[in-house]
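User: Study the chain.
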Amino acid sequence: MDRRGRLVGVPRLNEQLLGCSSAPLSCPSNAFFITPTGSIFAVNARFRMALWDESMATLHDENILREMRQLGTKPSEQELSAWLGSMRSLKTMAALNEALDLLLITERELQIAQLAQMTDAIREFFDSQSKLKGSTPGRALLVRLATVSQLLNVYAHLCALNATLPNRTRQEDSDELGPIASKFSLTDAALKLCVKRIADCSMQCDSGTEEPLSIFEFMTHFTISSRMSAGADGPENWSKIEMQKYSPQLGGFIFCAVLMGRCSVQHFTTHTVSLLGVSQIDLLELFCAYWLHPPQGTPVFYLPRVLSGCEESEGNSESTEGWEEVELSLEVWDLLLRHLQCMALMRTLPNCPSMAITDLLNAGCSYYREQLIPTVDVPVRSGCVYMFQVGVWAATQKVAPGALHAALGDRQGTSGELSEWCAKIGELSAALPMSLKRELVMCDCAWECMSAWFKERENNFVLLEHALQYVSLLEESPRLQHGMCLLLWENFLRERLIDVYNLLNKAGRFPRERLLKREMGISDSHLVTLVGKCRIMLRSLCNAVRDLDRYVNRRATYEDFVLALTQLAPERHSDANKEPLSDVASRQKAVNYHLVLHHIHLATVIELQLSVCDEDERLKPSMLFDEVGIQALFVPFHTHPLIPIAEVDLAVRERRQLFLEKCVSMLDGALGDNKQKWDLIVNLVVDWELDRDELRICEIVKLCSEQRIADAEKLIPVVEGRGRLADRLFKLAVAQFRNYLATTPEVLESAERLSLVTNRLSVCLSAESNDVAPSCAPSREVIASLLKLVNTLLVTSAYSTRRSEQVTLVAEMENVLRCAV
């Protein structure tokens, strides 16, 4: 019976459960069934069926289905015949639907002919059951059977097409792009560029190596359900099939025949498409899934066939007056094509990550910019899709930041490998001039490089250097540079510097490598570099905040077609409403300049201690700051605590002066190698208002003790206290002269015979014996140069009796040296 009908009871005066007592042989009806069409049926149930319900038939069918489920994965003909016999004994519609589901199990290996034969057998049995056929569930089962039969026919048709040899005709495979360009309103150059882009991103198709799509895998892509539409009483259109999922494998199975020339385009559109029975939107989605799938080989040499299939006939266009009607779906497809061109250009970059329209919709406008980040080998937020792609690529490729910055400015590289991707970046920048602004790309590249370093600090240490280089390229945009420095400091570097500070305060010396790897995840060889990068980042932050007021806060802008796509599909992008990184950096509140400078001093002290002082030299960085300064360390940069930069206790000033003098005395190597460290020392001396002359004097004395007289002479002009320098060098000269006489006794004997060693000189050599210890045995020429330098300083210093005696002693030592000639 039709489940949409109604059972109506009619009460009688002599109504009884199993009949009437006045006429025992008669059983008049007291119930009627009304169908949806208006037919009325009297219910005349026999006594043996009075207590019989649907559950008995369901139990019967369940026992039959249990036997039918035992059908193996490779059934024989006898097993299939027995299965069909069991199917014919089913009594309910639910059981017949489940029997059809059992037949379509993907694990079972059946030939398409066997599957078609069994489907036809189910259809014939169902047609013979008139009571089941007229009900609504019966018509739904007919739809399922018709859909399965239609899909079997389509599968057999496509298998036959794919088995034929390619037959490319000149009419459909013309290499002339001119007519196609005019039909699509494109210039020849634009069309050739599109073809080239697709060719660069594709591979040759070899369909013979692909695994064939089985009939069961083929049918899983389509909806084969028993649900009926609202107008169930009318005839069902069985040729309309709904897609359940889209896959490149199904797309290749359907479109490879026409793309490889196994059938004509006309045959495909008029016969194959009509036989398939899916909507045009589903067909386009399926084609895109196949054409844009990276592992699939795309036959680009059949691109004219694809374009001709999309051609719009001029005869179908209708001239209308007034406003032109806008077809939203066509606008979406136009936007998708423009984005596909940009993605095709991105895919030509070396080792570019995979891209998809869905990623663009999910990420928002800055997707491309964020992906343009530099890998030599083949790592959250939203913003421009293309910007995001550029950033990720740059971080993974580890390209030099300067090269990427130049490429975005249309300056081509000179080397072959570099100029190739530089040209691609230049073309991409021309296609997306607003999304790929250089300063915005630098922001995303800096963030992605820093993120990649943070995940693997030891292996990706070069990316930390790249991140700082990207930030340094933002000097022309102080607001962006200020925001990026602050974000990178707060998210990545602040905690690392705190760890180093705590380790040094705990041990007072260079941490052991095992402790470093356990606490910070880096080796001792990278520790000094990490602290130096923190200092550079803080210095850039100080420089940027000074010019912050002269630059307004600018929000990122994007191309119309980038904005339009995200607006036309708002339900697809879940993260697109998040603020882009450049906008987040631009709106950062100005930091406290002196607080940042205070942290620069701390980073400089730690860097000097780790790079200059001995590993066993014990010094806690906190000893160089007073209590107020220590409390101001590592607080948020927007706060304004008390910061005594130079106004500290005398004991702290003395410790600072002593520390810097020790650093100067431990500098080694040539003058150029020490310039960077000396600049750090000078900056601390200036900011802390210490004695700079004393540090220069220490350096000059150190150079002279190392017999580098020429280097020492270059530093003398900047010294203001010539008298102090003369006294220090005089003591060094006496010690060097004494050491020289000890190693060359013949010179002393010759001088004594000539009476050149006066009592004054003898007393001087004895009195100054323990003041200065020479670093090495000097030569006669070195001592002569040193005595000449000391004599010049003594003569140019303020006159005094002591100075006169020192000048006389220098002259006597020079006379003794002449005996060695």
Summary: The mean pLDDT is 77. The first strand starts at residue 6 and ends at 9.
